[in-house]
Design goal:
The protein is an alpha/beta fold. It is about 40% helix and about 15% strand. The longest helix is centred in the C-terminal third of the chain and has 20 residues, at about 235-255.
């Protein structure tokens, strides 16, 4: 199978360069790596890797940039793998992914169980991630199970299932929960699987992410938008929204390093006010 790895990136050329360089350790190399930036400065320079690199400039925003990657890859690739620009894949990742798609023709999407996720635990350094992965021993007992959601930092698709699917550009900038929305629509075409045979480390790098105010607004507006669209279940959406609201309230009293909880809380409040006024829209963050 022809496998394209697509990486959307903004303002993190050094980090994405390390991520792509790490891919040289893959047992099964990608056939191409497609880097999608929003400006020339987003693209790394001086990379020496044993696979072709394609560079694309697209309108800023995770959904816009991922769509540009899909538009390019779907013309040739059999499988596309979206890695975040700070995701370091374990060396068997692409080989195991190809094996899974080859063995099951009903499979249309996969995601992995992570060794560590800095987005949840606090940012992880690239040197620490490399050291952990270099000494990592794959699990002996494989565990593949059906799922309804693919984690956006590492998700792979069969291109025949997503030829007409694109990420929702009504979710601007960071595109919060775009992976949930895309997964729900992809599920109409076949099976989604989460596997411990697919793994790696998500650094959770803070630089280059959207502001606390914008993210806080998206934590409310995007959830309600996707619930109305029918791609996020009401229970899951409200649990996620209220959990983030509680975390922002507590964090505003005890500020955390690198996380703008007060900005997020303010964004939450503006979204709820907009909801009451009947003008809430995920795209409002563009003007914030």
């Amino acid at each position: 199978m022809h496998i394209d790895v697509i990486i959307a990136t903004t303002d993190r050329a050094d980090i994405v360069g390390e991520t792509i360089s790490w891919l040289r350790n893959q047992e099964r190399m990608p056939d191409r790596v497609v880097i999608v930036g929003a400006a020339e400065d987003d693209l790394p320079s001086g990379l020496e890797v044993p696979f072709p690199i394609v560079e694309i400039i697209a309108e800023k925003g995770l959904c816009n940039q991922r769509n540009a990657g899909l538009d390019f890859a779907c013309a040739k690739a059999d499988l596309v793998m979206f890695f975040d620009d700070d995701f370091f894949a374990e060396k068997h990742y692409l080989a195991n992914m190809e094996e899974m798609f080859t063995a099951d023709t009903d499979l249309v999407g996969v995601t992995g169980d992570l060794i560590a996720d800095g987005a949840q635990t606090g940012a992880i350094g690239s040197s620490e991630a490399c050291a952990t992965l270099s000494s990592y021993h794959p699990v002996e007992e494989r565990n593949d199970r059906s799922c309804t959601w693919l984690y956006g930092c590492n998700m792979g698709f069969r291109t025949t299932a997503c030829e007409t699917l694109r990420f929702d550009t009504n979710l601007p900038f960071y595109g919060w929960q775009e992976d949930v929305d895309f997964s729900a629509r992809l599920l109409e075409f076949g099976k989604l699987t989460r596997s411990n045979a697919l793994t790696g480390i998500h650094l959770g790098t803070r630089r280059g992410r959207t502001s606390g105010l914008r993210l806080g607004y998206s934590q409310v507006a995007n959830v309600l938008y996707l619930q109305r669209k029918g791609t996020m279940r009401y229970y899951d959406g409200w649990r996620l929204m209220l959990g983030n609201l509680a975390a922002n309230l507590v964090g505003s009293l005890r500020p955390e390093p690198e996380i703008d909880r007060r900005g997020r809380l303010r964004g939450n409040a503006i979204a709820f006010i907009d909801l009451l006024r009947g003008r809430m829209d995920p795209r409002r963050i563009i003007a914030m």
